[in-house]
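Mods, move this if it's the wrong board.
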Amino acid sequence: MPELPEVQTTVNGLNALVKDLRISDIWTSYDSLSHHGKDNIKNPKYFAEFKKAVIGAKISGAERQGKNVLVHLSNNQTILTHMKMTGHFMYGKYEQKNGAWHPADQKSALADPFNRHIRLLFTLSNGQHLAFADTRKFAKVFVFETSEQKNISDLKLLGPNPLARNFSEKLMLGRLMLRKNWKIKQALLDQSLIAGIGNIYSDEMLWSAGIHPLSIVSKIPTAQFKKLFVAMRDVLKKGLDFGGDSTSDYRNIHGKPGNFQHKHNVYRRKGQPCPKKDGGTIQRIVIGGRSTHFCPVHQKLYK
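Not the wrong board. Structure tokens:
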């Protein structure tokens, strides 16, 4: 699932390429019986209202909240997209053939096999398209009045942004202590505590801070929390610098993979020597249903 660096990279791409363009048409292949009656575009009746709300509006800009992409429109409407496991936006020229959309330039990165499952497509005023690929069809897309942003259930319970200027070590500790009896790995994944961190980056920051993922939050020493705060910011910024992680399906606005997957110290490195050369071998366990990687030598367990 795209995490903070991937979602922010997407938002940066949207602001660079589609800002000030008008939406002239929308197409989707989403249609799920399990979503009929629900307020998202997988419900055909809702999609009809969605089209009325956004066609003709100009894209004012995009922002990220947690793992959500918010595209603000000139008519006081905002499109929210949670990309879930396999969703990503791409910009370019597309052509429709046999009911499906394909990039006009089959030699471009947009033709990458990971980009072929186009489920949603916006036609823009410059003749280009904003396409949304979603192999497993898990993504969530809906529209709301921008003035109601603080009241939207998908957003109002999110924790603070760990890359915000006002995000401090004290704030991080206070948020994590709301789940003081939880394992630290689970607390980092709780979006109501700190928004945007997922499986990949939590493993990497705990490795960097020397904290075992099974450690109980309240038992972790202050000195280790200081290291975690630094690691949290550094790892997420590094993810941004390398254009996100494409271990799975994620691709950027140009249809190209990020490079953070080549910079892993611990994630998906089970059986390999720890990069710290401490004699440890990376292990994998499951915590709360999530795959977790760590070094048993330098990552200390606090219980």
